[in-house]
Amino acid sequence: MAAVDAEVARLQAENDRLRRTLTDFNERIVCGRLTGELPDNFLEQFSQLPDRPLEHVLRFLPARQVVQMRHVSRKFNHLIRKCSKTMPKMKRDGTVVFRNNNAGELTVDWFDDCGSKITTTTTSLAGDEVALSELLRFIRIGGRMFFGEGVSAADEVLDQLSKAWLTIHPEVVIFSSDISHTSQDSLRAFLVKVEPSIRRLNFQNVTNISDSLLSDDVIGAAGRLDGLMVLPMCWGSELRDSNVISDINIGDRTLLAMADAGRVSSYFFVMGCSGITPGGIRAFVEKWTKKERPQVDANFSGFGWPLELCELTFYKCANVTAAAIEDACGDLLKKETIAGAGVFVGDSGEMQERVRYTTQCPSSNCRLEILFHYYPFHSHFVNEPRLDDEIDYNYDDDYPDDLDPEIEDDDFDDYDGYDAMDYDDDEDSDLD
Amino acid sequence: MIQLCSNDDPPVSFTVPRKAVELSKTIKTMLEDLEGFDMEQTPIPLPNVDAPTLELIVKWVEQHQDDPPPVEKPRVEDDDSDDSDADDDQEPEVVIPEWDKKFLPTDDEQKNQLFKLLNAANYLEIKPLLDIGCKYVADKISGQTVEWVRDYLNMENDYTPEEEAKLKEEIAWAEGL
């Protein structure tokens, strides 16, 4: 009975407290108006709907209206912000492009699924402006995130995007800018944030990578990836002089993790990663070959390209040469000379034989390719959506067989695989 | 049978079948905690619920006592406790049954009674009642202007002009999308 008494006493006390507050409230009403100093949360106690039902009501509303409802009152705004994680959000599943200009302004361009521009929003990263994370609070980012022009992937941007209350679920993240202002910690935190959704991570034509930025540890934060590209920007003489390209700390660990890629098409394209060793590649090939796959119905295969294509490309990786691969895993792989021209002009001007190493699992119709030259990078290069000439953009979209080397990345993975091979042929015929 | 008492002075008490009253998770848990005591003899005081509201609650739980129990889904609590990136934008699907449509105090003069009912449903954790009530309010609010909602929910615009300007900027940013 003691428990009941305690409960009754507690409820009675609560009752008394409310009664006292109410008496106080009544005393303050003079001629129908509230007078005197009110305690901070005074009105909240008497507001007609408490937080929980209000929050519940808001969840039934369209996302756009929830954002507007923030105007209703401070309490409402506070509540909506507090529950932002569970509030309906405006979905943006196309591409969002971050750009940074010299004035320190960050522009955010929003594109829909078809690459048509929706709008541009600008924010400042300095001073007491509204924070980026605050602006993105009621938006759900899916699709692709693209860090373009300027130092758009600087720590202050990444840190804001990593805030716990934001809903950021991109499948593809592309860094394509100056990343001199990006630190390991911020990049790692951002990758942890997007880890549940991210499938492909491209560092394409990035400049000013600091020595310690990219490492197995940082890339590992992104979890299981189906595609990774690390391509520092290099032009003219830089291309020929490998000393200019700073070494990237990505090694066998990241490579091995890629063997778990679950998608139909996967790629691992890296440049300047001396941490990759022939031994690591052997381990990868073994792991990849033994990976469990659903058996393919014999009637279903035979489209001319494999159902699963895994492409590894090592460019200017000190320890990875065709000869070293031959030594390390020649027994596992088949050496192929790429059709068309057997030779091409190498980076240092010498004639090189273009080869690739492949292996195939006929039972499950999948294929692994290891290549050593620069061109395959293009097949998974994601173009920044264009701002001005949307018509032109759509043209590219409609004609995927366009021979323009900057091949549009596509969500159809079969197509990607086809494209990569197709591209090689184009390349070689040019050299005929 | 269980007795429930309103917070009025003197309290008004209602006698409700145990099965019906257990639609309230709050009371159900309490009864379970007090297993072994003769709860039929002990009225349960409800400090947050007045007599008219309690009458509605009793009417509702008696009507719905034979409903199949709702499918329990783990509720995502407020932001800080939530690390799972579960589907955060799924819209809850609630259909208000015919009986409940007539039951809810939906006249405009009765809106405060409706809010009190939701308040009580929340306090007593009667999820299905809270769902349909909130759905009703949401349908009512949907598509209305900020001023209208303010009036409907008895809220006051307590922003300073500066705050309002800043907020406007934030909202405009999202509205372009």
Automatic annotation (TrEMBL), chain A:
The keyword DNA repair does not apply. CDD domains: F-box_SF. Residues 1-28 form a coiled coil. It comes from the Eukaryota. Keywords: Coiled coil. Residues 43-90 form the F-box domain. InterPro entries: F-box-like_dom_sf, F-box_dom. The keyword Coiled coil applies. Residues 394-432 are annotated as: Disordered. Pfam families: F-box. This is F-box domain-containing protein. It comes from Plectus sambesii.
From TrEMBL, chain B:
Residues 77-92 have a biased composition (Acidic residues). Probable essential component of SCF (SKP1-CUL1-F-box protein) E3 ubiquitin-protein ligase complexes, which mediate the ubiquitination and subsequent proteasomal degradation of target proteins. Regulates cell proliferation during embryonic and larval development. Keywords: Ubl conjugation pathway. This is Skp1-related protein. Residues 127-174 form the SKP1 component dimerisation domain. Residues 62-76 have a biased composition (Basic and acidic residues). Belongs to the SKP1 family. Pathway: Protein modification; protein ubiquitination. InterPro entries: SKP1, SKP1-like, SKP1-like_dim_sf, SKP1/BTB/POZ_sf, Skp1_comp_dimer, Skp1_comp_POZ. The keyword NAD does not apply. The keyword Protease does not apply. Residues 1-65 form the SKP1 component POZ domain. Gene3D superfamilies: Potassium Channel Kv1.1, Chain A. Residues 62-95 are annotated as: Disordered. GO terms for biological process: ubiquitin-dependent protein catabolic process.
